[in-house]
Write a structure and sequence with these properties.
Largest sheet: 3 strands, antiparallel
Strand order of the largest sheet: 1-2-3
Number of helices: 10
Organism: Plakobranchus ocellatus
Pfam family, one: Nucleos_tra2_C
Order of helices and strands: HHHHHHHHHEEEH
InterPro entries: C_nuclsd_transpt, CNT_C_dom
GO molecular function: nucleoside:sodium symporter activity
Strand content: under 5%
Oligomer: single chain
Keywords: Membrane, Transmembrane, Transmembrane helix
Number of domains: 2
């Protein structure tokens, strides 16, 4: 939420200083020439690049009475098809922030310490976005683990290292395992417990 507030405040300041108007006019001019669209829907589309649909409506509100039905439809379609930068930034940051906040919960779940940050990131994605995306990330990390195990067994002296974005770089092949790796030992015991 603070990210959305900061982004909206920044856009408001840029509008007050006139920077947004210059940027929007430049984008509008390029779009009108390249796409051969009308001025009103192009203005709305250009403004939607920088802000969300709710903030873009007041820009074209004085022009609504003069719009034809196709122009109005284009404005509505454009509004529903965009996501504001602040909202997008907030969704991107959920996994990163949660990788630290949810770390203790991942540890309490019985996850190995080396896997707590990736699991905490998936917990954050599950809580703040949805569980399907979290399970998709889990699948990527498990397949990365299989690639990593094959790499380690076929090239026992090969080196690897973590990147700044928590990916794994396999030095001998130059392959990057996006999202990192996760060990299978805790995963299999967590989801397939032994009968007592």
């Amino acid at each position: 939420m603070p990210c959305i507030i900061v982004f909206s405040a920044t856009i408001s300041v840029l509008c007050y200083l006139g920077v947004m108007q210059v940027a929007i006019n430049a984008v509008t001019a390029v779009m009108r020439v390249s796409l051969d669209t009308g001025p009103m829907e192009t203005l709305h589309a250009a403004f939607n690049i920088f802000v969300g649909w709710a903030e873009a409506v007041p820009v074209v509100q004085p022009l609504l009475d003069d719009m034809t039905l196709p122009e109005l439809h284009a404005v509505m379609t454009n509004g529903f098809a965009t996501v504001s930068g602040g909202t997008l930034a907030a969704y991107i940051l959920y996994g990163y922030i949660a990788s630290y906040l949810m770390w203790p919960f991942a540890l309490l779940m019985g996850v190995e310490v080396s896997d707590c940050r990736p699991v905490a990131r998936m917990l954050g994605i599950k809580v703040f976005i949805n569980e399907y995306l979290a399970f998709e990330n889990l699948g990527v990390m498990r397949s990365n683990n299989l690639i990593f195990q094959n790499y380690s067994s076929s090239l026992p002296n090969a080196t690897w290292h973590w990147t700044q974005t928590d990916d794994v770089l396999l030095d001998a092949t130059g392959q990057v395992l996006k999202g990192g790796v996760i060990s299978v030992s805790w995963f299999s015991s967590f989801f397939f417990p032994k009968a007592v």
